[in-house]
Protein 1
Amino acid sequence: MTETREEDTMSAEASGFSDLSDSELVEFLDMEDAEESSVSLSKPGSSELPGKDCKPISLQNCKKGLDVSSPMERFHLKYLYVTDLCTQNWCELQVAYGKELPGFLTPEKATVLDTGASIHLAKELELHDLVTVPITTKEDAWAIKFLNILSMIPTLQSEGCIREFPVFGEVEGVLLVGVIDELHYTAQGKLELAELKTRKRPMLPLSAQKKKDCFQVSLYKYIFDDMIQGKVTPANLIHHTKLCPDKPLGPSVLRYARQGGFSVKSLGDLMELVFLSLTLSDLPVIDILKIEYIHQETASVLGTEIVTFEKKEVRNKVQHYMAYWMGYRGPQGVDVEEVWKCRTCDYVDICEWRRGNRGLSSVLGPEAKETK
């Protein structure tokens, strides 16, 4: 977790709630002609790898027989983002290389991502103004997010519309955090989650990305429902984040809290208010999951997708993905029939998987830990 001691606004990531709520980057990987991709793969067992120097990069070099730390330990991660698991749904090795080799994002992809973020911001500003609050600690950062949750709960209770709602919860022993684009009620009084996805090209995504997006909104419901049903506790959050609940909040945060009508002194005070409000507010579980695809240039709606929530399927996927983060197995590449995803992957020139299945067992050095 990033921290700062300077009197400045902490990065969104430091708050523990930053989440790539859009998926524009994947659009580069699911182009209309993806099935006709010219990416070439070596046959299983081949020692050659197309690339800059024809040498694959092993994600971890350890001698056989030595204990290997889990990705959570190795990357010093206290929590995961919902989009981490969603990217695993696309390609798990892409996630692994992204953690090992940060900074590979191309300028073109960064521009697309910035455009998507701007559209999300414009939607958020339709409902409320944004206020910059100087913070000095990670406790301050989380306090701001808790204050935002407290301000949104009454709106949901009165069947209003809210945007950028933070969610968090312990899933398979790991803290998972994210941000829901929008929650509102339908004419029939059902609570609907609306996820906005912007597209650079004026066309709907291929089924592979739709599958990834459907998993994302299903995870949001999975976590949100647990929050309002009291299945998430302050102890869970403190255990994973190592926050200090008794640490006094900064003057700017305290002033912001007073403006919102909250008399608190520490993060612990806020946490108590948030968890009580979530469980005693009688908020309903999310009834409908909807994904809306919008063209970046024209802001026109390209189409919508209504997602059927399958709790058992979501749980099974989460268990499988968390097994990698906990170090019980190595990362897996895409299936052969989905090799077109490699077409514009930033790590295509260094990916071990492209040598064939023979290289997968050595990606993490020794054999992955035995699943408990």
Note: Strands lie at 80-81, 162-171, 174-185, 191-199, 288-295, 301-307.
Protein 2
Amino acid sequence: MEFASVEETLRKYIPENELVEVNRVLYGKPCRPLKIPDQAQSLSKDKIFELQGYEVPNVSTQSPRKVTIGLIQNQIVAPTDAPIPDQIEKLHKRIGDITEAAALCGVNILCFQEAWTMPFAFCTREKIPWTDFAESAEDGPTTKFCQQLSKKFNMVIISPILERDSTHGGVLWNTAVVISNTGSVLGKTRKNHIPRVGDFNESTYYMEGDTGHRVFQTAFGKIAVNICYGRHHPLNWMMYGVHGAEIVFNPSATVGALSEPMWPIEARCAAIANHYFTCAINRVGTETFPNEFTSGDGKAAHKDFGHFYGSSYVAAPDGTRTPGLCRTRDGLLVTTVDLNMCQQISDKWCFRMTARHDMYADALKESTSHDFKQNLIKEK
């Protein structure tokens, strides 16, 4: 039997009156279901993807600053040995269809999953043909495709790609391109932390990003992009908040055997600690490659990376979070939030006010020196 989601299993086995309390403990305040337009529902059925919609509850004395966020998780469409132009073209078509549904739902900011135009081939350590998926962040075919969608639908789009940096000799980066609702490229941000665990052989292709913690002022709020592995680093999350982010997207590609117990926790904890909304996006499905590859953990050679478990969700500064999308299907999660909550929760909990950044800045600086001594007290 297919295990689709924690939420589905809870609904199936827990009595309705108890489920209310279970969900309160697990997810915080109940998110209100959004009314999904009939045309969007029809499109999701026709194109075979899950469509969920929620509103994060908030009571404010200020005029609401409501923003509707869209997250897309998807499987690759063509097999990994298909010609690269065909793989990209089919993914463009697939995401274009789901983006149309997002527009029908009134989405203002839409984020795709990490390296969405390609299979997650960085596990293989093979350079060719995978580096041929790389393209310019400024004027590559994927950016031009997204610019058309942004302008057509008055929507900010976050497009994580494998970037070819022609300015610096054609080196590669794991990059998210942020495209304004006007269709202009607002900027790009690069992945700050690169994994070196198991099949995650990403440093074969690109190194740590050099763009720091950029926050983008959009027509719908201040947003940032914490790409994949960066979610394991609390200081990485913190710095986006220091620079004023109100929503931080975490486009990812991670598999069940490695990280699934951590997935529901990390982005939610970051939302609470930093007084902003977080959006966790994970690809879905199993991708099989033509040649076997080995891991850094002693496993026998294999041709697939494991199951990408989807489960994309949105978390709020008060700890509330939406249910997740399915573990096994393509999906679009639509979530309406009130950005006033960021300041409200900051005023309530005062985590930023009490953060003592000056103390930690001095201690961290000292810890990186060659002659650093731990502040360790021993019995005499």
Note: Residues 26 and 321 are 9 Å apart (CA to CA).
Protein 3
Amino acid sequence: MEFNVRRLAADAGTFLSRAVQFTEEKLGQAERTELDAHLETLLNRAESTKHWTEKIMKQTEVVLQPNPNVRMEDFLYEILDKKVPTRANNHELLGECMIDSGHEFGPGTAYGSALIKCGETEKLLGSSQKEFIQSSAINFLTPFRNFIEGDFKTILKERKLLQNKRLDLDAAKNRMKKARAADARAVAETELRIAQSEFDRQAEITRLLLEGISSTHAHHLHCLNDFVDAQASYYAQCYQYMVNLQKQLGSFPTTFSSNNNQPSGSFSASISVPTAPAAASLPAPPPSQASPALNELRSTSGTRKARVLYDYDADSSSELSLLADEVITVTSVPGMDSDWLMGQRGNQKGKVPITYLELLN
């Protein structure tokens, strides 16, 4: 108990001494020890890194999720340490709306079929957007946030300690100046040596932490490259989806009778809607073309590019849906049925039927 009282009294004395020194410095009544120029430069660099890291994070979040209400909701879930509920994004909602309306107007009509195809593409865009957001959050935003909430907080803590040690040092210098008696001067000299030693030690610790900002910049540069790669992949994938959709819509008739009162029955009867061939009737690749390429692919277990000949809707989660004319990467997997290959489009993987593909050189 007595030890705790003495400790509290000592802490109170130290706090009072620092407060007096700080006040006198502000009033211009006391001198202060300035940090060396290199340390000041490192401190300014750390503050600048923190400032711009926070701004980049905030603006990236706006790009990934423009809706401020959704961002606030996600933030609250994060604070409460709860899983964010799965929600459809705008592309997926539009896709569902188009598909439902297409079925309402009739999949056998040009407009209905076109709406369904547009809706399916919108859902693919929505799925790609989700993958892009997730990838960016993990590989870009999380490292930036870890710096703000981890490394920079440590820097702030050590910088505050350095400020306290500087106040202790300058207070000891003032006591040394005011000491007149020999005994008092001896005590002041001892306190000054201790204060100077503790200040120098804390300055070195702070300097080493601040010099680590260079490593932080290097790491953030790597994260920036990942973010740009994710963006390039996302936009390329979206572009390919839209090009494929344009080609599909281009096969629909664009001129119809101008008689708006024409019955829908006669309207739809005059339209020939192209449909993808059924799986059972799809022609197998000619042996003269497909066999050597397939044999080479299976023997090397390598990867090849392949062009998709027809649209294909996956029957299960192990398969990959395909769009006509898109180019994907295929791999032969040992033990897989000879009529199938493993396909990959961006981050999506799944089995694809060989009869839907044309291997490229």
Note: The first strand starts at residue 303 and ends at 308.
Protein 4
Amino acid sequence: MSFCFNFDVPTQSTNPDDVDDNKLRNGKKYNPSNYMEDVAKPAEPVKEAKEHLPLSDTHFLLRDAVTETVTIGTLPPLHFLNETVFERTASEREDEEKILCRTAEQRSDLISGLYEGGLKVWECTYDLLERLENAGETFGGKAVLDLGCGAGLLGILALQRGARQIHFQDYNSTVIEQLTVPNVILNCQEDDEIDSEEDKEGSGMGKVQEEDSCKEKERIRAADLSQHHSLAKCRFFSGDWSTFLAFLKKEDPLPKYNIIFTCETIYNPAYYPALHETLHELLAPGGLVYLATKSHYFGVGGGLHLFETFVEQRGIFSVDHLWDGEEGLQRHVVVLRFRKAKSL
């Protein structure tokens, strides 16, 4: 699978990693606090949040689908729609946002304010999956948010490993409807097929019974999955983080999550305030935020150093490095948790 950071956005600023503390910027000594005040201003109108309900007939979403599977260590196989197919069949898909044709025309993986990269599975997603496999996280009984979910692989893993509630959020409604929801359904189908095979093996079926099992499998594939027990644990949202948070705040009680996943979402410093507030408001006490990211996103200006500086200034979260990759463009997996109140 190929990856491209061909971002179609104006450069926000010089990377502060390349600026020595003794050098001047705009006639003033460089200071991370001043830098964040300058860049952390949204450049585009926000996109209103909305919830997407799985259709009553979901089978057609997977018709003629081309899928890929990723298997990491002991993790269950994760299935997802092939990203190249989206590019080649853009004109055939429902897309009120017109992001499929725009990304194909401009050969860009990000168009600020229009499309935020959700159709690709970025490298850091796999980094985080590997760390979760090493940690042996089972998610049993936990509430999970896949923030900036794209293909939704992290949320799907939580679903397969016993989470009681999984919410998926992406900036684009097209990503949710055309990619995230189908991927969740695809993995729900896989669960049904595994259960069917286990039932068959346990009952000592003969040839006639095997034929009946095949018919039953086809029935499952064509069935209405909107009431599937796993799908019933999921909710799907699109929109800007600030409007997504406002949308959830209308609920009583406000949803709180034991685990929040977010991958490759800190590329643009202008989004840091909305992201930080969302994490602050939605993380449950004692909860964890798993953030997978690159050190720096060229052409956009964001990266881990800037985000850590931003988080430190706010004083809400501590940041611990779970993994640091040293090869090529450096990648990281970090964990955010609420700071402990200092004892008097």
Note: Confidence is low (pLDDT under 50) at residues 1-30, 193-211, 214-223.
